[in-house]
Amino acid sequence: MNSAVTFSPQTKVRLVVLAVMCLSAMGSVHAGLFDDDEARRAILDLRQKAETSKMESDQKFADQAQRSTEDGAQFRRSLLNLQSDLEATRSELAKLRGQGEQLARELSDAQKRQKDLTQAYEDRLAKLEPAKVSLDGRDFLAEPSERRDYEAALVLFRKGEFAAVQSVFVDFLSRYTNTGYRPSALFWLGNAQYATKDYREAIVNFRSLVAGAPGHARAPEALLAIANCQLELKDARGARKTLEDLVVNFPGTDAASAGKERLARLR
Predict the structure, then answer these.
(1) Are 229 and 195 in contact (CB under 8 A)?
(2) Residues 6 or more apart in contact with residue 182 via CB below 8 angstroms
(3) Cβ atoms < 10 Å from Cβ of 176
(4) Contacts for 223-227: CB closer than 8 Å, 24+ residues apart
(5) For the chain (length 267 residues), average pLDDT per consecutive 10?
(6) Closest by CA position to 181, among listed 211, 143, 225, 222
(7) Contact of 197 with 232, CB cutoff 8 Å
(8) DSSP helix/strand/coil, 142
């Protein structure tokens, strides 16, 4: 048995409104479903792009890290090579410094030897070559042997060996005929002869001094010595004449002053 349901007009209106609302809701659901799929696809696409970008970035980072590692290894190798070169250079410098110091020592030793040899040569040369001598107010050149023999004779004179020194001076004057020592040698020879009372020979040598070197520093003393020898020989007249010559020719000397005193005693 069929029975029809009867709706009031108001109910019908409500049903129509409800149906419209349902249709609207179903459209919205379909529209929402469509929007969600697009979003998911967009998200997946973005995720894929992000993954791809990350992989590319990771690969680039890995490549850069590898290059950095290789560069670092190369730098370390270069640094090790540089350190090795520096060590070798320092070693070579130390070796060269040692060689330089050795050469400096050898040069110093060679210079010292050269200096010693030069000094030895000059010393030997000085013993062979004439040298300047200053004696009794005169300068002259003398052979080393002259100086040696003259000084040896004076040593004997100072020792009082008057007899022995006479032969030494005579030999000296015969061997060195042109020696600058001649006036002084004659003076000491005459004094040695005076000491041994060989007055005549003493006068001869004193006169040789005065005649050969009248301006010699020993000439006034030689004249005074001649006068003394003459007095010893009892030749007062000759002594007076010698003393007068002494006072006239060598005034102001100690010998002239002594000569004046003796002249006064002779008058």
Answers:
(1) no
(2) 173, 176, 212, 213
(3) 18
(4) 223/249, 223/250, 223/255, 223/259, 224/255, 224/258, 224/259, 225/190, 225/191, 225/194, 227/259, 227/262
(5) 58 63 56 66 82 83 83 84 86 87 89 84 72 95 96 97 97 96 98 98 98 97 98 97 97 96 90
(6) 143
(7) yes
(8) strand
Question: How far is 172 from 187, CA to CA, in rounded Å?
Answer: 13
How many residues are there in the chain?
267
Backbone angles phi, psi at 243, to 5 degrees: -65, -35
* 18-37 CB burial, b ≥16 within 10 A, e <16: eeeeeeeeeeeeeeeeeeee
The phi, psi pair for 160, rounded to 5°, reads 85, 15
C-alpha 10/C-alpha 26 separation (Å) is: 25
CATH of segment(s) 132-266: 1.25.40.10
Question: Residue 170: is it exposed, middle or buried by C-beta count within 10 angstroms (0-12/13-18/19+)?
Answer: middle
SS3 assignment, position 233 = coil
Which pTM was predicted?
0.57
Can you give the residue ranges of every domain in the chain?
Answer: 65-129, 132-266
Contact 131, 144 (CB under 8 A): yes
- Report how far residue 203's alpha carbon sits from residue 212's, in angstroms, rounded to the nearest whole number: 14
According to the model, what pLDDT value does residue 43 have? 82
- Computed on alpha carbons and rounded to an integer, the radius of gyration of the chain in Å comes to 69
Decide: residue 235, CB within 10 A, 0-12 exposed, 13-18 middle, 19+ buried. Answer: middle
